[in-house]
Write a structure and sequence with these properties.
Radius of gyration: 16 Å
Strand content: 15-25%
Number of domains: 2
Helix content: 40-55%
Order of helices and strands: EEEEHHHH
Largest sheet: 4 strands, antiparallel
Shape: elongated
Length: about 100
Amino acid sequence: MKHTKGSWFLEKSDWTIRSKVWGESDMMADFRGVIIADLSVGHGGRDHAFPEAEANALLMTAAADLLEAAKLALEKCPFPVGAIKAKKALTIAIAKAEAKE
């Protein structure tokens, strides 16, 4: 299973998370990029919910970058004996992101 490539961003005009990189299977694309997620329902137009919706969106937009960083950390960084918990946490997170859990 592969995720949508490219840098993800929050489009605040309609509260969607999008990618500017288009692939051959991109069905929901327009001039603002490929839609990855629609957050408009989550905040429901309530002003007090916008900060949380934005924080969630920013976390989601970092997901692909965080996955790559986790893979690099496991591949390139030596883990001393005391860092076994960190290595295990990275391994679990990567498996979860790649639906191997």
